[in-house]
Structures are given as structure tokens and as C-alpha cells.
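Q: Here's a chain of 348 amino acids. Please give me its 3D structure as C-alpha cells.
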Amino acid sequence: MKSKFAPDQSIENEIKSLVAGKSVLVTGGTGSFGKAFIKRLLEFQAPRRLIVFSRDELKQFEMQMHPDFNERDEMRYFIGDVRDHARLEMAMRDVEIVVHAAALKQVTTAEYNPFECIRTNVIGAENVVRAAISCGVKRVVALSTDKAVNPINLYGASKLASDKIFVAANNLSSGGTSFSVVRYGNVAGSRGSVVPFFRKLIEDDTGYLPITDERMTRFWMTLAESCDLVLSSLGSMQGGEVFVPKIPSIKIVDLARAMSPHWPHKIVGIRPGEKLHEILITEDDASATIDCGNWYVIEPTFVKMFSPGRDYASQGGRVKNRFVFTSDKNTEWLEGRELARMIAQGTF
């Protein structure tokens, strides 16, 4: 089923011209998003080279053996860490497009290992920017998270810093390389998601599901939707903007009921650095936010970053003053039967 973020006709040809005969690099390419995005890109338009950049040799080996990738001549595999600027420069030679998905993403892990989080998520972002400019990469899209908005934990703060680095990079590149950010919420079924955690507890027949707080809400999207969103953003971007998809919210307690209707819940309390609700667009961002139908675009505050190109304002109007996009006040929700249907179909 085609997702609502799939490239439409107006940008489909743009993406194909960007990718056909070109080289694409994905940092964190062996992660949940990385593998799904690479598969989606190969279905959409095969590039001349598609480089998987990651630090885990076992995951790269397993990916090479997978039927989706093992007979693709365009695939390349680079062992490397985004902390290593020299290795990034070597990997980005003759690369036109970079999708930056590598990050340390676990909230509690970041709280306990702050230096490691900063080195990967912040210094790593700077290294990607420097290498992309040095190598003449044309377009870079960096993945962000709702936790980067009004952050209360180190992971969110590090991703906020990363977002700022990528937006500001457009001033450093003098138009040679365009940088944009895609910001979204939880991805169903990805590593670290609550869904596989709940599923494992159900398989182990623990008898109950732990709930941090009955009021907790989260933004939710499927892995396929996240891939299409990034693909569409590559075709739409000018540089400096933040793409925010219109995605539904869920109540964590509703998800638990849908996955195991008869099991009791045990309230375990909010973990360090965890929010009750998440935010994708703040009231302070409203003045720079344009409603473009299936997503919002937050334009950069430095207008000089925007070169003449795609006119987002013509696609929709600016949001109202004091507009916010929060998981607890969303107009779209996944509940009851819809959640159960998606779980039964394996969408989660």
C-alpha cells in the first residue's frame, strides 16, 4: 500500500534524475531505517553506487547475505564511524547524496554515557557536514526526532544540536551542498521501539505489560512511511528547512491493550529523561512553519539560506500564531481496532 508520504509526480522525476547514475551514501546503513530506506531506494531508482556506512562488520555481513541486497552490483559496504572525519571523507568521494541516519538513540544509554552520545550525535554531525562540503556532495538529509524539540534528556539535546548544525551548514557551503533535516516521531517496529519490547514479553509469557504512565502519548509512523518521507524530502529540499510529517498519535496504554487485550498492566514509572508527551513543532516555530498538505516545513530563520527554488508558501499557508504540534493534542489518533488491525497485518 502506497504511503501518503510517497513521492508524487511533481517531485518523482526530480528524485530519479538525482539518483540515476549517481552515488548515494547512507550512514547507519545497517540499522532499521537504513536497511528499509536502501531497499526502498533500490525499488524506486537504482543509483550507480549505494554505499552502506556503518561500524558493525557483523551487521554488514548479514546485510550482504540478505536476499534484498546480495545480488545488487551497486552495493558497497564501508566500515567506519561518523566520529572519524577522515574515514567519512574517504567514503564520500564521488558521492552526490548522503542520508545521515547514524546516531546513538537510546535515552537511558545517553544519560549514562553522555560523552559517547555527544561524540556520535554532535561531533559526528559536524564531521558529516565537513566531509560533505569537502567532497562536493550535492544534497544531505539528516534524520531527527521529536525528542530534539524542547529536550529534557541528553539524547534530545544532542539531536537538537545536530539539527542546528545541519541547518547552519547551508551558510558554510555557499550553495555547493544543500543540507536539510527530517524530523519525526517513533517508528513502529524499529530497534528500540516499544512494540518489539512488548512482543518479547508476550512471547516469554510474563503475564503483564509494564506501562510507565497511563497518560503517556507518542507520535507514531511506520518504517515504510519514514522511508518515503525521506525520499520525498530529497526531491523537495532547497536546504535549511526541517520537514515534519503529519503523523498520528497513540496512547501507550492503547497499544498495550491492542497487543495483549487480556493482560494486566503494571505501572513502573517514567524513566530518567522521559517525557509524558512529545512535540514536533513548538509555538516558537509557528511563524516559520508552512502547512504543505501531508507535512509541515519549518523554514530556516536565516532567510539568506534559501536560494530561489521551491516555493513552499505556494503549496499551503502558514500555520496560525501559537500553533503547536504535540502528541497529546493531535487531531489524528491510532486507537482500538485500527491498532489491532495494523498489528495483525504486521505493519508494526
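Q: Can you summarize the key feature?
A: Residues 114-135 form the longest helix (22 residues).
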